[in-house]
């Protein structure tokens, strides 16, 4: 007999982890309420707590800035090449 894996939405996981962190009910009670094994709930809580420092860090924005800066530099380089080519074409065609 094969078992089918259940997939839970991110919203549901967030709701459950918030319930765990509120500590109004035990993890066992929440597992019973949501019909999810308590070890799975503990894994979700661990993932949430491990990812929490990343919420407040600027590493993502710094990575985006460096990516953006690289794109800008590549575009400036392309503009320079196109300007040079246009000037050369104008010179060769006698328009300049």
Summarize the structure in short.
By secondary structure, the chain is an all-alpha fold. 78% of the residues lie in helices and 0% in strands.
Write a concise keyword list for the protein shown above.
single chain; 96 residues; mainly alpha; 2 domains; 4 helices; rod-shaped
The profile of the biggest β sheet is: none
β-strand percent reads under 5%
Distance between the termini: 81 Å
As a percent range, the share of helical residues equals over 70%
**Poorly predicted parts:** none
Structural class by sheet pairing and helices: mainly alpha
Record field, number of beta strands: 0
| Mean pLDDT figure | 89
SSE series: HHHH
- How much is the radius of gyration in Å? 28 Å
Our count of helices gives 4
Number of separate structural domains: 2
